[in-house]
Amino acid sequence: MFRIAPATVCLSLFFATSAVADSDPVVVELFTSQGCSSCPPADRLMHDLAQRDDVIGLALHVDYWDYIGWEDEYAKPDHTNRQRAYARQGGRSMIYTPQMVVNGQHDVVGAQSRELDRLINAHLKAAPEAEVKADRTGNEVSVFVSPVELPEGETYDVRLVQYSPMRHASIRRGELAGHELDYANVVESWQLAGQWDGVAPQEFSTVLTTELPAVVLVQRVGHGPIVAAAKVE
């Protein structure tokens, strides 16, 4: 299990033969809403994260602010359910926006860029627990997972996430009425390629539903830690 410690840990290489851009990126999930007046600063941070090679930034729009006058056109109930599951894992009784969750383990309230950078850097310096690589031909994807140092007796979801690199919203009602906003890396769909016992290397195959770019996340079942992630090349 990943823990943040003051001591510096050696940065291990992810697939030694791969390019630096492919090395064990940190996953940052932003739970946001077009109906939330506090969200634009965090949404702007996601634009910065989307440009980084060492981070996979994903914007998950939630639907629980729709009742205050504006229905977020990119919101999905599944995103709200995912945020609730993270709250349960963290022993929290409430969910809120904006919230960033780093590698499924640590959360950042609002747009605290310094705290976010601290968490990202700590995860980048952590020893890898697993490795994943994904190859795409058309809409067919092959995913290769391999353990490095995983706890015994756990099961991991291997998920493909597709996203739009940029979406625009003309907001007409609610707290952000009159704003024209661009959103980076908006999550559009999730697919479960399969489940992995973490014991031996394994290959999974799946067919994506759209032409959109994709990433693969290897996450302990039950919305636990994300132990490996990669952009689908």
Task: Walk me through what this model shows.
The protein is globular and about 50 Å long. Helix 1 (40-50) links the parallel strand 1 (26-32) and strand 2 (55-61). It is of the alpha+beta class. Helix content is 16%, strand content 38%. It contains three helices and eleven strands; from the N terminus they run E-H-E-H-E-E-H-E-E-E-E-E-E-E. The strands form three sheets. A four-stranded mixed beta sheet has the order 2-1-3-4, with helices on both faces. Strands 8-7-10-11 form a four-stranded antiparallel beta sheet, with helices on one face.
Main beta-sheet strand count, sense and barrel state: 4 strands, mixed
Radius of gyration: 17 Å
Estimated helix fraction:
10-25%
Low-confidence stretches: 1-22
Query: Gap between N and C termini, in Å?
Result: 28 Å
Strand arrangement within the widest β-sheet reads 2-1-3-4
Total number of helical segments? 3
Shape: globular
Number of strands: 11
| Order of secondary-structure elements | EHEHEEHEEEEEEE
What is the beta-strand fraction? 35-45%
* Class based on secondary structure composition and strand pairing: alpha+beta
Topology of this structure?
Blueprint: E1 26-32, H1 40-50, E2 55-61, H2 77-89, E3 99-102, E4 106-109, H3 113-125, E5 130-137, E6 140-147, E7 156-170, E8 180-196, E9 202-207, E10 214-220, E11 226-231
Parallel strand pairs: 1-2
Antiparallel strand pairs: 1-3, 3-4, 5-6, 6-9, 7-8, 7-10, 10-11
